[in-house]
Design the sequence.
């Protein structure tokens, strides 16, 4: 499998075989790190990380993965780059592409990372946009495979706001890998029909299934994976909290939901999660709405079925695989 020089912008761009290759490569690189085997096979290369939206896991994953591979990293935070302000996306891409061997972008519209990739001349990796979160997908599928032993036929239920990057990316990934994807949420939070239709066509070829339902018990019955994310994304105004809480609280992941799934089911979350009052936003939500937990209860988050920290670690191994595959 040769992915050298390829961009990694969205899972739609990759075949099932290519996705499976990246998952397998993630497993191999993870094993090397656990065994203390040096794998600085990209020594001498340099990458730039552009973050218009800040992140803990994505930044740390790229930096540690790059270091393990022998690369040097330049981090550009929201105040450290002129991208889109004093300098166009196109010009930024053409400048950085002459200095770096690869560029990561985490920010807003998908069109920004697509334009970067068009003009950079080096691999560009999508660390998150409003529409897609492809690096998270490889980590998530690696986690499912590790915990449940396989991917094909897995019933994967996403609860909450399925209209944006996580719902979109998980639906596409499950379709590509022959899994049973369920978006379990209010109809107003279903993914866009155009993307649903795309996934239904892919599912015909892979044996996957795509289901959108508002029925919590039906949607989560005998699920292998229950997945959720925060209800308000970065960049959205605080005013939307009230409506989101009202409309999405029926889709909170709690003990009843997990008991309706298979006994072997796992709980996943891409983090950060509002499951207690130990964050500034969590305290603000409590003061305003009287809620001590949001998209997932602390009982589930801290349970033996929760694999969220294995999933978080796998971000680093999967990002390493993506960079290795596209640069080596």
Sequence:
């Amino acid at each position: 499998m040769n992915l050298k020089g390829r961009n990694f912008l969205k899972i739609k761009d990759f075949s099932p075989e290519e996705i499976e290759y990246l998952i397998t490569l993630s497993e191999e690189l993870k094993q090397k790190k656990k065994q203390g085997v040096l794998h600085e096979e990209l020594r001498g290369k340099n990458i730039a990380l552009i973050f218009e939206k800040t992140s803990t896991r994505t930044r740390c994953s790229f930096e540690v993965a790059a270091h393990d591979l022998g690369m040097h990293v330049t981090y550009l935070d929201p105040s450290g780059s002129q991208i889109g302000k004093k300098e166009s996306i196109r010009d930024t891409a053409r400048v950085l592409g002459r200095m770096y061997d690869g560029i990561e972008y985490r920010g807003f519209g998908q069109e920004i990372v697509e334009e970067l990739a068009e003009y950079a001349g080096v691999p560009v990796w999508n660390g998150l946009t409003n529409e897609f979160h492809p690096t998270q997908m490889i980590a998530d599928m690696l986690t499912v495979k590790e915990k449940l032993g396989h991917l094909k036929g897995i019933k994967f239920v996403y609860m909450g706001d399925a209209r944006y990057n996580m719902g979109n990316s998980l639906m596409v990934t499950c379709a590509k890998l022959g899994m049973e994807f369920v978006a379990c949420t209010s109809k107003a939070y279903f993914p866009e029909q155009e993307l649903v239709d795309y996934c239904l066509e892919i599912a015909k070829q892979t044996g996957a299934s795509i289901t959108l339902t508002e029925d919590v018990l039906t949607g989560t019955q005998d699920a292998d994976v229950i997945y959720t994310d925060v209800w308000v994304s970065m960049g959205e105004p605080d005013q939307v909290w009230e409506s989101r809480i009202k409309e999405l609280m029926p889709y909170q992941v709690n003990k009843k939901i997990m008991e309706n799934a298979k006994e072997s089911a796992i709980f996943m979350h891409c983090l950060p999660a509002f499951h207690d009052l130990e964050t500034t936003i969590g305290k603000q939500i409590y003061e305003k709405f009287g809620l001590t937990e949001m998209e997932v209860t602390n009982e589930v988050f801290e349970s033996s079925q929760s694999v969220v920290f294995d999933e978080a670690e796998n971000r680093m191994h999967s990002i390493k695989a993506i960079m290795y595959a596209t640069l080596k």
